[in-house]
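Thread: Modeling a multi-component assembly for a lab meeting

Hi all, long-time lurker, first post. My supervisor asked me to bring a structural picture of a complex we are working on to next week's group meeting, and I have zero experience with this. I have the sequence lines for every component (436 residues in total). Could someone generate the structure of the whole assembly? Inputs are pasted exactly as I received them:
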Amino acid sequence: MIAHRLAVALVAGLLTGTLSAAPARIQSIRVAEYDSKTRVVLELDQARSHKLEVLDGQPRVVVDLYSASLAASLPERGTGIVRRIRHGRHPGDMLRVVFDLHASATATSFGIAAGKDGRGHRIVVDIFPGGVESEAAAEERAQPAVRDVLVAIDAGHGGKDPGAIGRGGSREKTVVLAIARRLARQIDKEPGMSSMLTRDGDYYIQLRRRYALAQERNADLFVSVHADAVRSLRVRGSSVYVLSEKGSSDEARRLARRENASDRVGGIEMDGLPPTIADMIIDLSQNASIGASLEVGDDVLQHLHGVGRVRKSKVQTAPFAVLKAHDVPSILVETAYISNPQEERLLNSSSYQEHLAQAMLAGIRAYFYRNPPRDTLIAQRVAAGELPEQQYVARRGDTLSGIAQRFRIPVAVLIRANNLPNDRLRVGQVLKIPAG
Ligand SMILES: [Zn+2]
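Re: Modeling a multi-component assembly
Sure thing. I ran the full set together rather than chain by chain. Output:
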């Protein structure tokens, strides 16, 4: 018995457009079982349109892709209603992937373009046991998509540009990449947040390319990670900078000159626009995001207080080329001074790197829970009153009122949340910081 019923869906939309000449590669095939359905996800390195067919008789779902090849190994065992997966090549570079089923079913499919969450192009096939899609399954499919907040993490320098070099020989480009990777991993573990790295290796990227990468992926935040150096051995501590063209201190200008030096970015040229008009456009969009940059910078700075020394207790402004991300709130974190022998050692320690990353994440999290971008899981959680709790480790000189002010909560709330008998604090005491 062959094909009693034939359902064909041609899926256009997201995955059409200009198809490139090289065959797309299917990089993975995942099958997962849910209450009402079995979901298959094909991940591709390029967008491809596909055709979905559901056949009865020997029940199976067939996905045809034009100009595609299989670069993934097929799961050996079945999952859910999928008994096994096989594939075949057909004339005209067509790849056919066949899902043999335990029972007859219906199926729907859709494409997701690469982006936001760091994954590639995907084709999602939902297979529903039985002839008719259940009401619950239909409802589940109708849920509007929520996205993750995307944080672009930029490890400063790289390749031919080592950045600052410590007395002990540590290179800024190496330690900041380690910190950036830790931050990326922590962000990816955080519900509703995902990360991207502008560089993930020891190579050189132009400054303008760094923020262009973040813009291409519509990042919600750009964080550039550095480790400063000065002639004096004694200077130490972290600082957070946001972009400003004017009104910056001499020290900030000196730092910006050095951080910008690897890549002579005088003004940004915008293709086809006279420079003066381009500058004006950039100024306008920078003003719009500078408030957000200052706010998230302050959140990160407040949390860095819990890790080590903070050099400047206010967010600094400097004309950093790498922060010219126009519409993306952007901060530059000088995590520590690689020129200070003690901090050079710390910068190389994995636990200190991890603590720095934790503090940056905590600041970023606090900012996004106060300012959740639309259509994100965080916006949904905020609307549902699900706010994350944070922790703060008291350090010398801290007072309850100071901490309360820093996290923008009333002192009484802080005392209640921690069942404190009085307002005395000891160094190292861990405080719960309720969501503000
Ligand atoms: Zn640097």
